[in-house]
Amino acid sequence: VDYGHEEVRVKWGKDPRQYSTTTKEFVSDGNGTIKGVNTVQVEWTKTPTGQWSMKEVPGSEKYYPADLILLAMGFLGPEKQAPTEMNLDLDGRGNIKTTIGMYGTANPKVFAAGDCRRGQSLVVWAISEGRQAARQIDTYLMGKPSALPGPGGVIDTTRSPIAVNA
């Protein structure tokens, strides 16, 4: 709880946050302007393989009037069709399995990075992993160590041959 949540609790008598709720429908006023949102409570359980599964709670539907909707979207893992078609292995949480510390998959021509590899994370991880995957792909395609930026920025290939392999 941060100070903003506490201020709202003191003013309105309850914690403003709503957990385990999913949006079912955005409601329009008929003229293209948002009027509200229909929601339902959800329950999270683990499957026998350890993946999270979301189920709606019957009778928990609720309408919230609204003038503005901001989306903070969750992540349930990568779609399964592409990994299945490319014969990629998935880890216990349903993410695309890669070589530890690397971005290669069971298919030597397919690389994975970001949320589909590590699960939901901050966007800065996706950017960093995308750059590192690009570097590994460049090495694969060129058949020699990549000169693309590595962790921490641009690699100066004029200073040390070790930097190219970093």
Automatic annotation (TrEMBL):
* The organism of origin for this protein: Anopheles maculatus
User: In what residue span(s) does the FAD/NAD(P)-binding domain sit?
Assistant: 53-130
Q: What is this protein called?
A: FAD/NAD(P)-binding domain-containing protein
| MF terms (GO), sorted A to Z | oxidoreductase activity
Q: Which residues form a coiled coil?
A: none
Q: Which domain of life is it from?
A: Eukaryota
Alphabetical list of InterPro entries matching this protein: FAD/NAD-bd_sf, FAD/NAD-binding_dom, Glutamate_Synthase
Pfam families documented for this protein:
Pyr_redox_2
